[in-house]
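Reposting from the mailing list since nobody answered there.

I have sequence plus structure tokens for a pair of proteins and want to know whether others read the tokens the same way I do. The first protein:
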Amino acid sequence: MTENMWVLDDEGIPALPTPPEKIVEVQCNLLGKATNYEIRARIDSYSGSITPYEMREVLHDFEESFRDNRFFDIQEDLGEIGSSVFTFEFYVTSSFIPNYKYRIMFMSYSIGYYPLLVVLDDEIASEISQKDSAGKVYQNAQCVNEQQFIELLRKVIGSKKVRKVIASLRHMSANAS
């Protein structure tokens, strides 16, 4: 006889928080309603790299591998399985200027949502004082829980840079109609 060893009840397992992209999605909807959908904020899945890298290093590594007739180890290049598998970009755009989007930030997490990696626009990071102990501005923030993310999101959305972009889009949209 085969025994089913899977325990599928949730008793004793902490409830998961709201997915970060759902928190952002609510804010996207609120901006649309507040601007009669002239200005839209979006949160979309993203599949590219979100951390800064220097292209010269990538090209140098590729040229070296090609010259030495080596093969790439795809398992090594893919990285650890299960790390930062869900990635999103958060941006604003206008229905009157559909080819323009201002990327506010990237978000990336693994199973369980937290810790959440947030990669901010440089100007926003500087404005909301995302600085290390030496005073250097850094774009990456790590939120360990939902409350920390909500506080960061509040600062980001309320930043002068985001407000300026939205005001500019509204002005341009008004002049386009």
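The second protein, same order (residues first, tokens after):
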Amino acid sequence: MKYPVALTIAGSDSSGGAGIQADIKTMSAIGVYATSAITAITAQNTTGVSAIQGISPEIVTAQIDAVFTDINPSVVKIGMLYSEEIIMSVAEKLRLYKPKYIILDPVMISTSGSTLISPSAIETMKRELFPLSTVITPNKAEAEHLSGIEIKDTTSMNDSAKTILSYGGLYALIKGGHFEDATMTDYLYNKSGLVESYKGHFVNTRNTHGTGCTFSSAIAAYLSLGKDVGNAIRMAKQYLQSALEQGSNIDAGHGHGPVNHFFNPEKLKTI
């Protein structure tokens, strides 16, 4: 027997609601053994990001080497990568170790509106990491930025997803949290078009810090438990929905507080 293992490659959030901290909390709550490679340190809370310091690419790759050569995760979730140099170093290691699944959350802007990556780094990400990815998980604004297409309806969304996948990747999951739609529907595309949609419902709360990190980490966790892509997304959607609901009335900070990752934690599983 062994633990299901997932690796998160992302930045640290000192407030604990997003980034590496949210990833580890999410994976742990689902019963998966979480490992990590930290790409940047942020001074951050629920109201914004006040400072960022990138980790040297050599230390980032040393963390990845340490995890893969010993614990060997089957699934990797990628969040904030900070710089072109880190992106290229991460891509090199993923090409070497070839994990079964890679979930890429193209983190560009925080919930509070802080920019977390440079325009040149975004182009490098598209070139180096999109072709390696199983699922790319942009929200509406990120999908528009990545594709250069304003999403106004299902046709423009399909065009946006098609453009994103032209850079590489098996699936693009365009998240519906930023649409003016109470169903909060997420849309999964492959290169042939729409594969499936995942409906939720609106939760009236300001505690939305780290929802993207949480969702992508939950997908990674369920994949590491042996679920297929469609079911992993469906289960991750339900996990995030419940985490939002259970944390909706909690006073945690003066801005966008965190979701409740541990509303119903699982024991660490074995496979």
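Reply #1 (J.P.):
I read it the same way you do. The chain has a mean pLDDT of 94.
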